[in-house]
Amino acid sequence: MSTHAAPGQHITSEDSAQALCPRFHRAVELIGRRWTGAIVRVLLGGPRRFNELLAAVPGISDRLLTERLRELEHEELIVRRVEPGSPVKVIYELTCAGAELQEALDALGRWAERWLGLQP
Amino acid sequence: MSTHAAPGQHITSEDSAQALCPRFHRAVELIGRRWTGAIVRVLLGGPRRFNELLAAVPGISDRLLTERLRELEHEELIVRRVEPGSPVKVIYELTCAGAELQEALDALGRWAERWLGLQP
DNA sequence: CTTGGCTACCTACTTATGGTAAGTTATAGC
DNA sequence: GCTATAACTTACCATAAGTAGGTAGCCAAG
């Protein structure tokens, strides 16, 4: 098994590409991106406005929140809804696909409760 | 778990710091780091040697694999065992804590099967 | 006894991603 | 006209990831 293909060469399906389910890989890369899991978890609690998310996800910057929301929208895990008015309200909520991440995120949450101490 | 607010409930800046369980946050930052989820998932299939992991996780470089393995070892999700011999064998396997990620990763895997297409 | 191969790394360098701060547009209140 | 708020942009710098190449220890072939 020549794993590491010569410089510049691409890894082909022969070599190990199927060793790990590619959909799982995509999923972990997607919700694993910094802040994404946290954002989705907040949205599991119901629709939220931009600034509510900013407050609910401690540490994230507005730039990154925008970026992550765009990505999630593109992946169709959330929808963006604009309510016109005095100051416009932009509301984000989970799609069906997004909401179904609950089981996985809850399982991860339970694991974290059990195994992760709190010392940083 | 007290993490979720009821649908529609308002999140204020006071509770924002605690709005998202810090352990969950650590967990998602930990297994969300690039490749980490994939590595753990391979190890759920049993102990693996360095080069076996390299082959089983398509796309990862040896440098990053080393780095991720060190991190996982430090977090006590895996143990590193060296078997002396002609060419030394270095074997990585999950600790109890690591093995218990199975539920969460399986749930994510099921979600990915259901919702993620394959087009890259 | 030198050459080449294997395993499990390490070092240096380049590119991509994340973080910080300031600016923008539009509307509203004073 | 001045200031505020919401939801972003833009510009810039820091950190993380990707790539290339090298190393040490051992073995077996030539």
Feature tags:
homodimer, about 120 residues, mainly alpha, disordered N terminus
Question: What does this entry show, briefly?
Answer:
In chain A, 52% of the residues lie in helices and 12% in strands. The first copy, chain A, is mainly α and 120 residues long. Chain A has a 3-stranded antiparallel sheet.
Task: Give a structural overview.
The structure is a homodimer of 120-residue chains. By secondary structure, chain A is mainly alpha-helical. The first copy, chain A, is 52% helix and 12% strand. Chain A contains seven helices and three strands. The first copy, chain A, has helices spanning 13-17, 22-32, 36-43, 50-56, 62-74, 96-99, 102-115; strands at residues 48-49, 78-83, 89-94. Chain A has a three-stranded antiparallel beta sheet. In chain A, strand 2 and strand 3 form a beta hairpin. Residues 1-18 of chain A have low confidence and may be disordered. The interface between A and B is large, with 55 and 60 residues. Chain A binds a DNA duplex (30 and 30 nucleotides) through helix 4 and helix 5.
Percent strand of chain A equals 5-15%
- The helix content of chain A is 40-55%
Quaternary status of these chains?
homodimer
Order of strands across the biggest sheet of chain A?
1-3-2
Structural class of chain A: mainly alpha
Number of helices of chain A: 7
User: In angstroms, what separates the terminal alpha carbons of chain A?
Assistant: 40 Å
- Biggest sheet of chain A, open or closed, and with what strands and sense? 3 strands, antiparallel
CA radius of gyration of chain A is: 18 Å
Compute the number of strand runs of chain A: 3
Largest chain interface and its two residue counts? Answer: A-B, 55 and 60 residues
Mean pLDDT of chain A: 83
